[in-house]
Amino acid sequence: MKKIEAIIRSSKFEQVKEALSEKEINFFTFFEVKGYGHQKGSSMAYRGAIYDQGYIGRTKLEILVSENFVEAAIDAIMTAANTGEKGDGLIYVSSLDEIVNIRTALKNSESINH
Prior knowledge:
With 114 residues, this protein is α+β, with helices and mostly antiparallel strands. It is built from three helices and six strands, in the order βαββββαβα. The strands form two sheets. A four-stranded antiparallel β-sheet has the order 2-5-1-6, covered by helices on one side. A hairpin with a 2-residue loop joins strand 3 (43-46) and strand 4. Helix 1 runs antiparallel to helix 2. The longest helix has 12 residues, at 70-81. The chain is elongated and about 55 Å long. The two termini are 15 Å apart.
């Protein structure tokens, strides 16, 4: 079992969601995040007030998949989220020791495929 975490541009979220769905990956968690990286933000003046844009809004996805879906998920995210510019995001994959479905008590692959 693997956990794929992807930080993407918020503007690309719908495209990534559709690309994952085409690969039959229909279950994931997402939330808005802010970060600071190579694509540095700046400050902006609007009507006399200065707004700090130093933290760039992104969407973070957490996807739990069995080993045979890892490459499909990465390919879907890469294709849908890529603009070719700095700030497109990151994907990282980690191993999971165990997953348990609270309602069914099924474990690992069965817990997310049931």
